[in-house]
Amino acid sequence: MQRIGVFVCWCGSNIAGTVDVNAVSEALAHEPGVVYSINYQYMCSEAGQNLVKDAIKEHQLTGVVICSCSPRMHEATFRKAAASAGLNPYMVEIANIREQCSWIHKDMPTATEKAIILGRAAIAKVQLNTPLIAGESPVTKRALVIGGGIAGIQTALDIADAGFEVDIVEKQPTIGGKMTQLDKTFPTLDCAACILTPKMVDCAQNDNINIYAFSEVEEVKGFVGNFTVKIRKKARYVDETKCTGCGLCTEKCPQKRVPNEFNLGMDNRRAVYIPFAQAVPKIATIDPDYCNMLKNGKCGVCAKVCTAGAIDYKQKDQIVEREYGAIVVATGYNPIQLDQFEEYAYSQSKDVVTSLEFERLTNAAGPTSGTLLRPSDGKHPHTIVFVQCVGSRDTSGCGKEYCSKICCMYTAKHAMLTREKYPDTDVYVFYIDVRTPGKSFDEFYRRAAEQYGVDYIKGMVGKDIPTVTECNELTVRADLDEDTVYKLTKAFIENLDDIRKGCATWADCTPEKAAKDTGAPMHPGAVRYYKEAGLLK
């Protein structure tokens, strides 16, 4: 049987103001194995620690229970005190009677009863504890970062700057991730490439960083400090040690109609390609699904024009096995798939695009060289509608129940850049709520609305309707709240004389008759305005 000492702390009035500390120490004194029990005003003080040390020596204690605050606060303190008195520090247990008891109860009898229960649980645990001895395990001083986007790149640079080797595994032919597809960043509107590409180059030039691009993790074994990882290096059919990135093969390849995934399929690339001009590593990759030589053995143009002799049609996937002490997972994100949201007509109209596709349409390195053109007919749009919260705060089961957090700022950025470059374009934003949780974020949103004239409309879009006309128009239907309809109706009536004159005949009408006779909107918000303006009884 253990010889256990119990020490109940008052924590000033934090505990003693709600818990009867005398009753707790008295009750716990009668628990099996307890040979000493006392309470003290500040157990963590030097005098309190000496009380613990003296009791350990005098009563030959083999275990200690401290009834006090959270172990996050003073567990290390009491373990150190116990060790200095000759007791194994892992024979000390903390019963949290402050955060888990006194701070959440107002009734002293209830709090006291719970404190006794927590103390008993800690005593029972000490009865089953065995002394532990801290040991050491060898650690492989090399880290693995899975994912070569901006988060993975910064992580790798930080680890390398600390003096450790680090490998980046990226499944795409180049590092950079989604940020390579962005044009500007909010709220400063800085150039995304100007921030990212220097970091990409730093990774390539850092002696402590090794980049496994066009590779994927196959298997992870081991434990913290000692992981064994298998990495599959996918065949590029280009010798990385010979390729100079001159791009001659990408210019001469006759297979030109391959969807360009970097521009989200909005233009084409060749079967042999370098994703974008600043790619790291800047090495060509042959797509086996489209290369005529790999599919049917006919072509070989890229091998003929490559002066470095880097083309290798017989190249195979390689498995690399390495050991790591730590692994950081920075695998990034994928945009939501819109096949569950057919009400937005994404599959029916080329002019309904995702935010990332819009990003490429406005990017100087995008499919339209930065000129905003409609995908359907290549003409400049004069009205753009942004639909917020698609797939977020969703209760239908098709999306996520939570807010995506960045979308309001992301949309404000797009709206501002559109209005700045194309002042003749009207920009509307349909939203549920505007959420801007960050430094200078709310000011950024207000700039979009007040300085750039972006029209924010509170309401949920219910349907996009493609209309086959000369202009390939889209009609957007939204469910607006009453206040929004009130404001829109007021502005509508006040700015259209003919309709205002026509409304004078409504005075003796019901909303139903007015709607039937004139086709005017009769949403509750509109009716509210009509009645205030004396246009309806």
Gross morphology is flat
Can you count the beta strands?
21
Q: Which range best describes the helical content: under 10%, 10-25%, 25-40%, 40-55%, 55-70% or over 70%? A: 25-40%
Which regions contain 5 or more consecutive residues with pLDDT less than 50?
Answer: 495-504
Q: What is the typical, i.e. mean, pLDDT? A: 89
Amino-to-carboxy terminus distance: 89 Å
Q: What about the largest sheet?
A: 4 strands, parallel
**Structural Rg:** 34 Å
Q: Which class best fits the helix and strand makeup?
A: alpha/beta
- Spatial strand arrangement across the major sheet: 2-1-3-4
Strand percent estimate: 15-25%
Helix tally equals 17
Give an overview in words.
With 537 residues, this protein is α/β, with parallel strands linked by helices. The protein is 32% helix and 20% strand. It contains 17 helices and 21 strands. The strands form 7 sheets. A 4-stranded parallel β-sheet has the order 2-1-3-4, with helices on both faces. The chain has a 4-stranded parallel β-sheet with strand order 9-6-5-17. A 4-stranded mixed β-sheet has the order 18-19-20-21. A hairpin with a 2-residue loop joins strand 10 (215-223) and strand 11 (226-233). Helix 2 (46-58) crosses helix 3 (71-84) and helix 6 (150-161) packs across helix 7 (192-205). The longest helix is centred in the first third of the chain and has 21 residues, at 108-128. It is flat, with a radius of gyration of 34 Å. The termini are far apart. Residues 495-504 have low confidence and may be disordered.
